[in-house]
Structure formats: C-alpha cells, structure tokens
Amino acid sequence: MWNYLLVPILLCLSKDLPLVKAETSASLLLPSQRGGKSSSDSLSSDSSCTILDPNLYYRPVIGILSHPGDGASGRLSNDSNASYIAASYVKFVEAAGARVIPLIYNEPEEILFEKLELVNGVLFTGGWAKNGLYYEIAQKLFKKVIEKNDAGDHFPLYAICLGFELLTMIISEDRNILESFSAADQASSLQFVNNINIEGTVFQRFPPYLLKKLGTDCLVMQNHHYGISPGRLQNNLKLSSFFNILTTSTDDNNEVYVSTAQARGYPVTAFQWHPEKNAFEWGSAMIPHSEDAIQVTQHVANYLIREARKSQNRPPAGKVLDNLIYNYSPTYCGKAGKGYDEVYIFTQLQPRI
C-alpha cells in the first residue's frame, strides 16, 4: 500500500532483524538441495540468464574534477599548475562498477567539456579551493549537469565536502553563505530528519540495521571547517527549493550542520562527510574502518553508479580509453602518516581527446 519508506519505521523493524535473519538462513537451500532433480541434473549448468535492462548502460564512466595543488602541501610537486585527484575517489567509483575520466580543472575548457561528453556522471571532491578558476569551472560544470538533466539525460552529480560547499555557494549565488564549524578529523553519526522519505535517495537500499547504526554509531568521517546549518539552508529560498535535507550532524561545539542533502528534481546528492574514506584512506586514526563503516562506503558508491547507469550517453569506446585515469599513474604519499594515501597528480596539460 505504501510506496515509500520512512526511516522511523525501518529503524523500528530493525529491532527484529536478528530473528528474521535466523529464520531466513535456516530455510535457504541451494538448488541441488531442493529436490525434484537428479544428482546429474544438479551438476549441469543452466545456460539461461536474466535479460539485462536495455535502457541501462553497463559501462558507466564518472568524471572527477581535479583540485588545485598536489594533495600533499607541495611535498610531491611544486608546479604552480599542478592539480590532483585523491585515489580514494577513483577506487570509490571503481568499487561500484564504473571507471573514471579526470576532468582537469585548468586544462583548456574546450577539452574539459569534450571530456564531459564521455562520462555518465560527475563527482566533485573535497579540498579547500572556493574561488578563482576552480570555482568558475565547478560552476560551469554544475550548469552543464542541470542542462543535461533538463534535456532528458539522467546525469548524476555527487558533491563531497568542499563539493557540497561549492554547490551551496553556486545555487544560493552567495559567496558568503557558508558558516564555520569545528568538524575537522572527526568521526560522527548521521541524524535523519524527522519523517524523511528516503525512497529514491542514497539511503534507500541501506538495510534497516545499518540505517539505525548510522544514527547511533560514528560510521562516517567528517573533515571540514565550513558548512551550512539547517536553518540557514531552509531560510534561503534558492537552496530550500533545490535541496531536501536528509541528515544533520553535530560538530565539536554541538553546533548542527547539514550533513547530507539531495536535490528535489535532479540526481544531485551532496555530502558534507566523506563516504570514500572509510574503505580507502588510512592517514587518520579517526577514519572508521569497521565492517559497518565499509558497508556505508559501498552503499553510497553503489547509488552513484546505479544512477549513472541510467544515463543515455553512449560515448565512443576509443575516446573513453584514451582519456581514462589509467593513462596516469598514482603517487604513494601515505608514508607521511597524514592526508591521502595515494594521489593522481596532473602537471602537463596534454589533451587526450
């Protein structure tokens, strides 16, 4: 009867989950254990497979926007034109079944936007840059994402940490809208907004027990000095008409900020936290690495790529291969004991289109 899920109901149902699991596991049988077939039949393989949905694209590619610098405060490259992508974002995308093309923010715009035509979604990473060319390119990419969706292509955008802050500034058209928070190097929980409908959101396929633990356990990594409070977002007409607030979190000073938001009419999801770090970064002792934390990373990655498969873009295979991030080599920087473990650094602007 209900065509939507409510978080409180799911959390309530999760109390009975261990019993349900026990009952279910006891009744699960392999095909060869169900009877009705001879032992020889049970050894033969069924050649029929479920027909894949022809409307979905099973070779999705995600464009990740590079960030100014080398990701290591100049320890790896002092080239003033250098930019980087932390390898954890690449692994995050790959873990859900997609490949990556780097969108190098300071390469010629005609090259950058040609690359955009080779991907099925975009990811804005964390970082610090909020002005200059980087801001302008992020603004133009966001506009392109909206245009693609308005034209009928399902084209998702993930905005993580700085990415969320940039969207807040771009959508509100206010460079000073962000607020200061004390949430650097901090593991936290996520508090769902009361009676939030999670159907169609990044949380829809989270199992009930994990939804419950998100609210009680520190399963996500925060690392930011800025953000936006629920009140300020809701009081800004442009932001409140674009975003639904899904979760909030609390900083070290008990100040509440928006930690997850999703666009109302577009496949755009914004995270103030870092879903990629749990599984793929080791530079901070605060990063959660429990099995539940890893499941959070996997579910969030799966949602992005599930959305990207809906894209109608079918880029030429040769051009994709020429521009994949595999044309570059990551640099290991984890021995410093802080920051990223690996980064892709882009210094020579060599067009690959």
TrEMBL record:
It catalyses: (6S)-5,6,7,8-tetrahydrofolyl-(gamma-L-Glu)(n) + (n-1) H2O = (6S)-5,6,7,8-tetrahydrofolate + (n-1) L-glutamate. SUPFAM superfamilies: Class I glutamine amidotransferase-like. InterPro entries: Class_I_gatase-like, Pept_C26_g-glut_hydrolase, Peptidase_C26. Its EC number is 3.4.19.9. One of its GO terms (biological process) is tetrahydrofolylpolyglutamate metabolic process. Its main location: secreted. One of its GO terms (cellular component) is extracellular region. Keywords: Hydrolase, Secreted, Signal. Residues 1-22 form the signal peptide. The keyword Protein biosynthesis does not apply. It comes from the Eukaryota. GO terms for molecular function: gamma-glutamyl-peptidase activity. It is found in: Secreted, Extracellular space. The active site is at C161 (nucleophile), H274 (proton donor), H274. The keyword Lipid metabolism does not apply. Belongs to the peptidase C26 family. PANTHER family: FOLATE GAMMA-GLUTAMYL HYDROLASE, PROTEASE FAMILY C26 GAMMA-GLUTAMYL HYDROLASE. This is folate gamma-glutamyl hydrolase. It comes from Corchorus olitorius. The lineage of its organism: Eukaryota, Viridiplantae, Streptophyta, Embryophyta, Tracheophyta.
